[in-house]
Design brief:
The chain is an alpha/beta fold. Helix content is 36%, strand content 12%. The protein is built from 8 helices and 5 strands. The protein has a 5-stranded mixed sheet, with helices on one face. It is elongated. The chain starts with a helix and ends in an 18-residue tail after the last strand.
Length: 250
């Protein structure tokens, strides 16, 4: 088509549409200019700006979805518009942080101390005595003195007082160990604090007989009146695992 034909068609189409459809809008047939008309659609950038403006001015009760048959709670009236204020949102967040500081977590309560009654009630009755544990086996001797809540006051073995290797299981080592532990208890004044004492023996090493003789001798004169009970906690094996083969020399 030549340029003259195009101009003829452009001039003819509006005239025909006006004569046949006078009440309808006239559409633009062929654009002859590079400028944009007022009836054209806006660009995507302008559309994005318009959407943001609408959201900023829309009340909160219109933006949040609501369940069917349930009225929005805690919102403003439909006719009132909530102004957008960024400073108020920041203040709300800071208030929440400040109110949370200094509060304890109820899920994890503070642990009770070693001398509290709650811990002692879980471990035994309120009239539970102090304990003097003697664990004597053929290689070593261990002595531990505990509180009624099983908190250790002193715990030592023959290696702590200078005995090495095979000498730790001897009678003399256990004798010196029991004397040293009783002396430490006397220095700390525990014989005046203990209302009652229970001696717990375990094992059949040489330290068992040495500890009993020390408690019955002059070294145990301050502790002996506090002893209410003597018990044995040696482990007994019913069946159990196969024993070690006997050692054969020669």
């Amino acid at each position: 088509m030549t340029p003259s034909t195009t101009r003829l068609l452009a001039n003819a189409i509006p005239k025909v549409s006006l004569s046949r459809y006078p009440n309808r809008l006239i559409t633009r047939a062929i654009s002859q200019t590079s400028s944009r008309r007022n009836d054209e659609k806006p660009s995507p950038a302008n559309k994005r700006t318009n959407i943001l403006t609408m959201l900023a001015n829309t009340p909160e009760w219109q933006t949040k979805p609501q369940l069917p048959g349930r009225a929005p709670t805690g919102t403003a009236a439909p006719n009132s518009v909530r102004p957008v204020n960024q400073n108020s949102d920041v203040k709300d967040i800071l208030d929440v942080i400040k109110t949370g500081i200094g509060k304890t977590n109820p899920v994890h309560p503070p642990r009770p101390t070693s001398g509290s009654t709650d811990r002692g009630s879980r471990r035994g009755p309120s009239n539970e005595p102090f304990h003097f544990h003697v664990y004597a086996h053929k290689h070593n001797t261990h002595i531990t003195v505990t509180k009624p809540d099983r908190g250790a006051i002193i715990s030592m073995s023959t290696g702590n007082i200078g005995f090495k290797k095979g000498k730790r299981g001897s009678y003399d080592a256990a004798h010196q160990l029991c004397t040293y532990v009783l002396d430490k208890l006397h220095q700390g004044g525990w014989h005046n604090t203990m209302p009652a004492l229970e001696v717990v023996l375990r094992g059949f090493g040489q330290g068992r007989e040495a500890a009993v003789k020390i408690l019955l001798g002059s070294a145990g004169r301050l502790i002996r009146p506090l002893i209410q009970r003597v018990s044995d906690s040696t482990r007994l094996k019913f069946g159990g695992t196969r024993g070690q083969r006997p050692r054969r020399l020669g």
